[in-house]
Amino acid sequence: MIKNKDLAANEDLSEDGVTWKAMTSVPELNKAINEVMAAEDDLSLSDDLPAKRGAGPAPRGASQDLSLDDEPPPSRGPAPKGKASPSIDEMMAELDLDQDSKPKGGDAGPPPGDDAPPAPRGAGGEDLQVGEIPDLPPLWKTYRKPILAFVGVMALVLLGVFTHLSRFGIFFIPGILAELTREPPPPPPEKPPPPPAKVVSPEELANLINEGSYEAFRSIFATIESAGPTLPDNMLALAKARGMATLAYGSTAFPLADLTKAVEALNTLDLGKAMGGNAAAANVEILKSRSALEILTGAHESAATQLAALVESRSDDKELALLLGLARAKGGDAKGALEALDKALVADSRYALAIHAIGDIVAAQGDANLEDAAFWYAKALRAQPAHSRSGVAAAALYEKLHRTGARRRILFETAENVSRGLPPAERPLVLYETAKAFDRVGILRQAGRFAEEAARLDPTNANYIALAGVAMALSGRGAQSVAALDAQLQRTPNDLETVLARARAHMKMEEVAKAFLDLETAAKQAPRDHRPSLWEARFDLLLGKLADARTALEKAARLADTDVVPKVELGRLELNLGDVDAALTQAKAAVTADPNSARALALLGDCLSRRAELSEAIETYRKAFEIDDEILEARVGYANTLRDIAMRQGAPRESQDLAASVPLYLAALNDQPDNPQIIFEYGRALELEGRLQNALALYREASMLDEKDVRPHLRMVQAFIEQSPPALDEAASSLKRAQSIELSSGRPSSEVRFWEARLALLTDRVHDAVSALRTATEFEPKNAVFHYWMGRALERNNSLYEAITYYEKAVSLNSRYAEAHRALGWASVERHKFDQSRVHFEAFRAAAPEDKTIWNDIGESYVRQNKDNEALGAFEKVLEHLPQDVKALVQVGNILSRRGKEEDATKYYRRAVKADESNGEATCQLGIALARGKVSKEAEGLLKRCLKSADAPEDMKDSAQSILDTAGIN
């Protein structure tokens, strides 16, 4: 920096102390140093100042070079007068001062030692090296006052803006002023005096007592307490109401102490002020209250004596008669009690308290009277719908009587008003039992709200939560259902009912995988419980997995001890698949295990009906009705059996049985209007009545219920095929629609194949029929109907022996399959096994005893054996029941003709033609018989008709032509 006494303008000593570098940082420092150097003579430098390492030769007038890092030594002489020239360090310090006259690198302290000054420091306090430029202080330290002032002003402005937008005004000043100037609030109004006591309306109290429900009595007590419990009339009403309530609901719901207190309070009553001063009427009310207390405390004889004296004179007072009946019943005088209660009903035929009391007395007479007792309880409930305790009593008796349907109905009626009719603690159980009764028969939707209410009233009961969850899922609230069940499983992880309920909820939501996972969990939790397997089978059926469903049901049936439901459902599956005998085995086992199972009896009835044991089926259905007259399977099965009886009688339209079946179908449809199976069966009945268009309209309606269901279209195919003559084009159109639905679903249908075959047989496409039926029997190898029609198709295809195999298979699946036995009989006739043929014909007779035409088949087998006597006896049996049967008439005529009794034979032929003029064989036989000798005009006409007949045997046509030719008739 100082070089040859001259300071370079822009140079500085480098950091290594040897080289020079340009100095650009502080030009003012260069100027100050030059001024110092100009006054060199005034400065005194020490001779012994050590030289700076690496410095150049000393300048003139000095022993050593002076660097910026060295302090000048003190002067040897006194300082010159006047202002002394500042040293380099002083100037440097002056330049480093900020506006507050503080060094930028911090306060300068005293020298660290000796007299040597401390090294210069930077802004952060670190030592500065020679030539190093010190850092400037942070902006905050330099301008903190203006920054703080700005921030304060902005905060004040923002506060003003926000407070101005508030309801208190800018800076809260208007609000504060308003609060300071606001007038003090007026003093609160004085509390009004309590309303004066008043007498409760006698009519209101009478209506509530007549209702006799739990909440009705509580309403009486609350009303009297509010109106004025010390008024004489109110005291009388309170005591009487407490007596009736305690008699009805017991001392647990209504404590006996409260009744005692109310009765004792009547001792202080001023009779002159009660009931408008009518002391006699007041004494009667007092007697009612005291009698109720005496009945409850065992002094019923005293009560009966006093009440009997008044009942005769006050015959219109039903309460006196009721109390007398209760007092006598408590003493064991059932007859006297019923007489007194009868007087109460004379006064009011809908007096529920008296009706219920009659039920109690009848029920106490023994099990033989339980049906009557239940009737009285049900009558009490219907007289006063809120009289729920009557419904509970009736339901208990119906359960004991195994009257499932009646119990379910009475529970439903009870649950409707249980919130008013029973104490709170008893309500959830009644609601749950009601919902459970409907769930057992698969119609929980009708009572799901009761399950949800039970869970709401008692959210700690896992069974209630589980059933409520199922009800929610069935009503379309699947997510809510699963959430509730998940929450319950967090509290009780191993609760089987909840796990099964969640599986049902998942299945309803079509979350199949989750449903089966829940069933696996349930099976692991309870390996000996049959319900997981039962629900697995039900889910499999919904998915169309019939084989898996059968396996699961078989497992459930093995695990079930007393529950016959798995056996019933397994039998129902076998029956739907056509294996009637297997279904019958399950049905009989179920009925044996539980003779009071309506579903087991309905299954047995269906099996018997399929086996043509129609009278036994009718009796079985009646037993099912006695147990549960609302069970769908029994109602529809009974109607179907009546319809089938009518069909077998030969004239269904005129049958009383068919007419009786129609109301049963209509009642079932009223309960379940969207059930396609009921629609199909009712439509079949309409077909038999000749109302084909009505039946087709029903089938079309069923097709709109589910566009993916092929069954309605197949029922239309059946209707078109079985009408006379068959409407083949319409049948083909309906079948095409069913085929289209089947194709879009991606699931082959054996029923579609079956009706394809039936239509193919009618249009002489035998090979197509055989192919379709083979596929159908592969899908359902246990369907007896499919096997029978496969035999028919093969027989049409001239494959008799193969046809016999299928007929025999049909009979093995349904040993009373009448048509299959008939087909086997004719197959034996064709093979000249006449004795064997008659075995099958007899089996037909056993399966269809009402069909007398089988005697024609038996007679034909004898004819083929040349046993005319036996044949004649068989045909005559036909004519005993069906005197206009053409086939029997012709056959009898033939036998008589072979015996030479031409005139008698001609009479039978004439009867045959009269019965059916279009019958070719009868026409030919009569023409040939009349043409013996001279051919008359009548004979000529008959012979010509014979030649034109499509169903006349060819050999007879040849005979007719020969006769005409011989007679020269063209």
What structural keywords apply?
two-stranded antiparallel sheet, about 950 residues, extended, 4 strands, single chain, mainly alpha
The count of strands amounts to: 4
- Measured on Cα atoms, how large is the radius of gyration? 56 Å
Which of globular, elongated, flat, extended, rod-shaped describes the shape?
A: extended
Number of helical segments?
A: 48
Relative helix content: 55-70%
> Ends: how far apart?
162 Å
Averaged pLDDT? 85
Strand-pairing-aware structural class: mainly alpha
Q: What are the low-pLDDT stretches, counting only 5+ consecutive residues below 50?
A: 1-25, 41-85, 91-116, 118-126
- The strands making up the biggest β-sheet line up spatially as 1-2
Percent strand equals under 5%
Q: What does the main sheet amount to?
A: 2 strands, antiparallel
In short:
The protein has 970 residues and is mostly helical.
Describe the overall structure.
By secondary structure, this protein is an all-alpha fold. Helix 5 packs antiparallel against helix 6 and helix 42 runs antiparallel to helix 43. Residues 1-25, 41-85, 91-116 and 118-126 have low confidence and may be disordered.
Write the layout of secondary structure elements.
Layout lengths: L1 E2 L2 E2 L3 E3 L6 E3 L4 H12 L49 H9 L42 H27 L7 H9 L20 H10 L2 H14 L4 H22 L2 H10 L13 H19 L2 H14 L4 H13 L3 H14 L4 H12 L6 H14 L4 H13 L3 H13 L1 H4 L5 H14 L7 H10 L4 H13 L3 H14 L4 H13 L3 H14 L5 H12 L3 H14 L5 H12 L3 H14 L4 H13 L3 H14 L4 H17 L7 H16 L4 H13 L3 H14 L5 H12 L5 H18 L4 H13 L3 H14 L4 H13 L3 H14 L4 H13 L3 H14 L6 H11 L3 H14 L4 H13 L3 H14 L4 H11 L6 H12 L5 H13 L4
Antiparallel strand pairs: 1-2, 3-4
